[in-house]
Write a structure and sequence with these properties.
Blueprint lengths: L1 H36 L7 H12 L15 H15 L8 H23 L8 H5 L2 H4 L8 H17 L4 H16 L5 H20 L6 H14 L1 H21 L17 H13 L1 H4 L2 H12 L2 H20 L5 H5 L4 H10 L5 H4 L1 H17 L20 H15 L11 H9 L18 H26 L2 E3 L2 E6 L4
Antiparallel strand pairs: 1-2
């Protein structure tokens, strides 16, 4: 216990004393640069800023039919602008003022949220998650992603930390989760997962997980029935969302013709590839790569299973890859270049990625599996079980990924933010050194977390630099500066 306390102290010191000040400085410099150079609304900001500024002007009834998400961001932006105006800020509902709302949400609110989880998980620096590259550039522009993420993760933290006690924390979690849906509709799925986490941790703490998977399911269902008062607020949220779907006729508010749900299974492979790539520092090692080789071709049986899995991946690529018109036409996104120069480079290039997808599935699945809850009741503190998932929780997590991204026809990295952050919160860095030559030079988890921070910061620096400095125009829109973003 004394050793764990020392490790936690060192981790906190490096996180708050070194990583966070560096990252905060980077964000302040980036925000200033973007405010100075990107003075016009960018892509979806055209709709979001205009709508919020209508609210600031007192018009809460005019709705832009191109906006697909609910009005949560605009009400929050209105409140933020009102507060800034009371403080005497000129143009409190201007572009820079509204963008600063997301900066506050990212570098302050998310940082504090992730810090609350460190009591339960020593394998994460809160700054590393706050600096996740798919998030950071949106700290500097007025998009829905930041506060959508802040609110749904607040809901999660409440059921993990239970700061108000069991029932008040659960009810507040369900309420804040409902608010988060007013920023991003698919948060209803992750709100359901938060409920699963709450119940899962209670089954873990009671030591009821024993036997095979079917017995795990029975234990979870029994817990759900006995804890029906905890389930009720989440069920009410689900009922309200169902009523919205019936009344609206679609999950999107506007632009419904360009956001028709389909079956886009290739999206799962894109998501897992991004997750594996952004988590390289926490898993890469000689031992890990050797374990993949043993898993995939270590025996005749494993080689046959691998062949069947790759054939399945090839079938999904062939039948369930969607090339949305936005992806093909909009060169302001990195995925445009990923698609053109890698996935659709020629008629067979997308199929050549199947082994890479197989490896990335292994990375995500292996870390999830090796970090599952150890069902030994003697090792559980009833008041504070470790931040780990049971097999039931892991299955629910994978189902949430599928439900949230497979229906979307857009190849959109922003959809991978929550899958990654949830996964990263529940997995620990490998205890193996990167290479055996580094064995003995510090604790591997500390090395890995430090490298994770450095990698995230480097990627963010490149993304922001390109966003600020690389400008071009479209022939059909002369004089309008275009830029590149995720």
């Amino acid at each position: 216990m004394e050793y764990l306390s020392t490790v936690f102290f060192i981790m906190s010191l490096l996180n708050w004393g070194l990583a966070y000040p560096v990252f905060l400085t980077f964000c302040c410099i980036s925000f200033r640069a973007i405010s100075d150079r990107v003075t016009e609304p960018f892509i979806d900001e055209i709709f979001h800023l205009r709508q919020c500024q209508q609210y600031c002007g007192g018009d809460f009834y005019t709705w832009d039919p191109k906006i697909t998400t609910p009005p949560g961001l605009y009400y929050l932006g209105y409140a933020w602008a009102y507060g800034l105006d009371r403080l005497g800020l000129v143009d409190a509902c201007g572009i820079s003022a509204l963008r600063s709302l997301n900066l506050m949400g990212g570098v302050v609110c998310l940082q504090l949220l992730f810090s609350f989880t460190q009591k339960h998980s020593h394998g994460v620096w809160s700054t590393n998650l706050t600096a996740f590259p798919l998030l950071v550039v949106y700290y500097f522009i007025f998009y829905t992603d930041i506060w959508s993420t802040v609110l749904i993760l607040t809901s999660l933290v409440l059921v993990v930390a239970l700061p108000l006690g069991l029932h008040p924390s659960a009810y507040l979690s369900a309420f804040i989760g409902l608010i988060s849906i007013s920023f991003r509709q698919t948060n209803i799925v992750w709100l359901g997962f938060n409920m699963v986490v709450l119940l899962d941790r209670r089954v873990q703490a009671a030591g009821k997980y024993r036997g095979n998977l079917l017995q795990f399911v029975m234990a979870f269902v029994q817990q759900m029935i006995s804890d029906w008062t905890l389930v009720l607020p989440y069920a009410i949220d689900g009922g309200l969302f169902g009523a919205f779907l019936l009344a609206n006729g679609s999950i999107t508010f506007g632009d419904k013709e360009n956001h028709v749900a389909g079956v886009h299974i290739a999206q799962v492979f894109y998501c897992l590839t991004f997750m594996a790539a952004f988590s390289v520092p926490i898993w890469i090692s000689d031992a890990f790569l050797k374990s993949y080789l043993r898993f995939s071709v270590g025996s005749i049986k494993s080689a046959l299973v691998t062949a069947m899995l790759i054939l399945t991946i090839l079938g999904c690529i062939d039948r369930f890859t969607v090339a949305h018109p936005f992806l093909l036409a909009d060169n302001r996104h990195y995925v445009f270049y990923i698609w053109q120069r890698i996935i659709a480079y020629n008629s067979y290039s997308r199929y050549l990625l199947a082994p890479i997808y197989h490896f990335c599935c292994f990375v995500v699945g292996n870390l999830l599996y090796t970090n599952l809850f150890d069902v030994k009741p003697s090792q559980v503190k009833k008041s504070s079980p470790p931040m780990k998932l049971s097999p039931i929780g892991a299955i629910a997590y994978l189902a949430c990924i599928a439900v949230t991204i497979i229906p979307s026809p857009l190849f959109e990295p922003r959809y991978y933010i929550l899958p990654f952050l949830y996964w990263r919160l529940f997995v620990q860095p490998s205890s193996q050194p990167f290479i055996m030559l580094l064995a003995g030079y510090g604790q591997p988890p500390t090395q890995r977390l430090a490298l994770e921070f450095v990698m995230n910061l480097a990627i963010n620096a490149v993304v922001v630099f390109v966003f600020v400095n690389f400008e071009f125009e479209w022939p059909n829109e002369p004089g309008v500066v275009q830029r590149i973003i995720w």
